[in-house]
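Hey all, sorry for the wall of text incoming. These are the two entities for the joint prediction.
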Amino acid sequence: MGSDGAPQEGFLTTTVDTVVNWARSNSLMPMPMGLACCAIEMMAFAAPKYDVARFGSEAMRFSPRQADLMIVAGWVSYKMAHTIRRVWDQMADPKWCIAMGACASTGGMHRCYGVVQGLDNFLPVDVYIPGCPPRPEAVMHALMDIQEKIRNEYSVAQDGIFGKEQPDIAPRKPSIVTPDGKDTISPSGLYTQ
Amino acid sequence: MPQHDRTSQSPSTLPFNFVPQEPETAVENNPHEKATTQVDTVISALEKEFTDAIGETVVYAGERTVRVDASRIVDVCVFLKDKQGFNYLADLGGIDRFTEDDRYEIFYNLVDLNDSKRIRLVIRLDEEKLSVSTLTGVYPAANWNERECYDMFGITFDGHPDMRRMFMPEDFEYFPLRKEFPLLGVPGSLPLPPQEPTGELTMDPFPAAHGSKPPKSFEEVQTTDGDEG
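and here's what came out:
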């Protein structure tokens, strides 16, 4: 695509990663691991008022084979932990995990013998949501964080360098064009005060 | 009206362990008192039928709690169900009093659904002999409550059809609601799942606090079976 504006003909070029990440991030199928009251907020998150269909994640998949995002909503007992790990292991790669609410993240108010003190004791968690329970907006924000994470993933580090060994490249970050359109600024600087 | 005025105390002057005190009220004008728990006729009938097996009656907030000899609890419940109309066992559970003698207590909340009456029976068990006859023959609803009581306190119920643990895993060795049981459990008694699909069980109850995080699925060690070989 030329730098002078619209493409001349009906095609544009991109990388496979960009297309794959675009498709993955906009069609996340959550596996709702609803264990307690957080599951009610998770239902609201999928229901029409908050309408997660805008993000392409409205299709809750109760089969781990069809899901790629596990939302663990609620406190996790030591007995249930084995089941969750088993469901997680059955999900196909690539997969992501959200620990929804204080209980799933840290054990929350259930500081006792029967409740696992944080989901990350046995699952690799990508996003933690605070709250007891979190608002559906918070769950949507977590979903957008997962999408952001997916969009910055890359699969082939040596693409286009003709077999020459290269150090691992950092994940691509989106860049923002300045208002005059001549320069780009890093978005990471925008969040620091 | 309460004697002390709580509104005059601003929150900053309250001590950390401030506990609001309920003002003393006479028994006859207790606001929590309900007519359904006025079962003095039932208690007198019990004392007439089982003279020596009925102990003291404790009245708190208008509720009658009757101490019963542990060996006669089934007979007392049969009498209450058949003769007094208490047709519903609302609750059953254990209490650890943590005393030298008669350490454990089991309470039975019985309800008469037709005449709206409630009574609570209490038996006491010594640590030496932690077993009592089951109530499932009288009230089938006692089944799961007695299993829970066994799970949490280790009290066995003779004649129970299915004396298994209710909540904790079958191979758990402790009784969590006993007072000597630590709040966060016994380390290693409840294993966590493996950190990787082919790994061993995690015996540390808090691996994340000790710096161990489960690897991402794409970082897991590839096994030699399947397509990877």
